[in-house]
Amino acid sequence: MVPSLFPRRLLSALTLSGLAFTAQAADFTVAYQTTVDPAKVAQADGAYEKASQSKIDWRKFDSGAEVITAVASGDVQIGYVGSSPLAAAATRQLPIQTFLIATQIGAAEALVARDGSGIAQPQDLVGKKVAVPFVSTGHYSLLAALKHWQIDPGKVQVLNLAPPAIISAWQRGDIDATYVWDPALGVAKQSGKVLITSGELGKLGAPTFDAWIVRKDFAEKHPDVVRAFAKVTLDAYSDYRQDPQGWLANQDNVAKLVKLSGAKAEDIPLLLQGNVFPLAADQALALGAPTTQAIADTARFLKEQGKVEAVLPDYAPYVSNRYVAN
To answer: So which residues are the signal peptide here (predicted)?
Structure first.
């Protein structure tokens, strides 16, 4: 990653080394998704409410596109989205900022072909029904995979389905393949073959990530609340990364992940290993040129696919590292 400039200022006594601080209370709504990440334990424990001294309304969404719609309307102040819907939202110049990289996606998202579908290799996707939530990281990755394999997307029946609908369609046998995340990914893998993962695509030049975004008006009014939210998340990541095996040995941690993600307990270790959860020092570097460039690259790809009308000359206003410290 390319280092970005990071303002070395005093952040209301907040540091990521554990010093106490006081956040101005502000009740707000958070849009979360069914991803498997260590911070869901903090969510289940009420750590975000305690740190922000606020009442939080946690609302589950099935896709980043739905989260963006809720954030744009003002119904949600903080939301979890993938890099593709983030790029689309920034291109539309919605009043948002990326304040934390939630995960760099690896094996936690993948393209799976159904057993018996006749798909043994990528070229067999031609003419087949492939389900994916449109304008999601999975959608971006699917199109990137088809481009890598030199397959015309127009020759594949790409269907726009939300993850719950993908599970139903898969179980009925209505689709041949899907590019998705858990819990739908776990269902598909039970009777399917993984053709490629997002981690593998990242190495081929099409990386994807998930991020936490915030409405600019909320962040400007309650910066300490946003910093508190970031600190709780990064503390959770640090706890996991210091001793992954010990963390997983705590069945209470696993149970909370299962409850909030819908994934199976036996799949949790692999799903956590399939992503990278950036720590504080990584965040301070990433939330600048690297993320701005990644959003711009994604926007250009979406424009090529006709998903957005134009690409902005600069995406820096939609990324900020002011809410994290190293």
So the answer is: 1-25
Rounded Cα distance, 33 and 109, in Å = 13
**273, 103 contact by CB (below 8 A):** no
How far apart, in whole angstroms, are the C-alpha atoms of residue 220 and residue 118? Answer: 53
Q: Are residues 131 and 143 in the same domain?
A: yes
Q: Residue 39 is part of which domain span?
A: 28-105+208-318
Which residue type, as a one-letter code, is found at position 267?
D
Q: Residues 159, 175: contact at Cβ < 8 Å?
A: yes
The pTM (predicted TM-score) of the whole model is 0.82
CA dist 26 and 144 (Å) reads 41
SS3 label, residue 100:
strand
For 298-320, the pLDDT digits (tens) are: 999 889 888 889 999 999 999 99
Residues of the chain with pLDDT under 50: 1-23
What the block records as the tokens of 154 is 């127009």
Two structure tokens written together for 302? 């979406």
Q: Tens digits of per-residue pLDDT, 23-32?
A: 455 799 999 9
215 lies in the same domain as 305: yes
Of the three residues 162, 182, 204, the one that is the final residue of a domain is: 204
Instruction: Tell which residue, 223, 275, 293, has the closest CA to residue 28.
Output: 223
DSSP 8-class letter at 253: H
What is the domain-level CATH number for residue 289?
A: 3.40.190.10
Contact (CB, 8 A) for 31 and 80: yes
CA angle 255, 40, 278 (to 5 degrees): 125
Nearest to 227 by CA among 45, 68, 26: 26
